[in-house]
Amino acid sequence: MRTRLLLISHPATAAQRKGAFPDDDPLDAPAADEAAAFRASNAPLLDADLALSSPAACARDTAKAFGLAAHALAALADADYGRWRGRRLLELSDEEPDALAAWARDPSAAPHGGESFDALRFRVGGWLDALEHRGNTVAVTHASVIRAALIHVLQAPPAAFARIDVPPLAVVELRRSERGWTWRPTPHRPA
């Protein structure tokens, strides 16, 4: 039996809508409505043998809104943004423009004292390589984790992370067979 893994990004949180780094924000009313609409439009997509989520409140809330009894998994956690957690990008561009620019272009940089994209990529790649579940798995997580998974599966250069756009409620399907992991476009109806 093959492994089918759907990675779904949570809806935009209030912090994201105001241009801030996340700080374990729960879903607010507009985001919860978006998650409910996604479930209504994509119920068959959410049929899973195993449901997982990031430990973050927004991912757990999204999984619940999808009707999933998801197990929180540390490997699916968002990148650790260190001292930038909760801070707005506009403030940081004024206060730490060089550090912000370095972080945006260099996957090994972590000037915020948290996790670099390379570290996130190794964490997510290690989890993918160790995943033993066969069948359908749905994992609710963050855009950064989905970017890291795609870089790992496609064996793309780490600098490509900045060129992958993962919007809220995006769905990425990965499949594993004896050949290894592959990415497959997944049709779904937007919420």
Automatic annotation (TrEMBL):
* Taxonomy, superkingdom: Bacteria
Q: Where does the record locate the signal sequence feature?
A: none
Q: Which InterPro entries match?
A: His_Pase_superF_clade-1 (IPR013078), His_PPase_superfam (IPR029033)
Any single Pfam family the record assigns to this protein: His_Phos_1
The name this protein carries in UniProt is Phosphoglycerate mutase
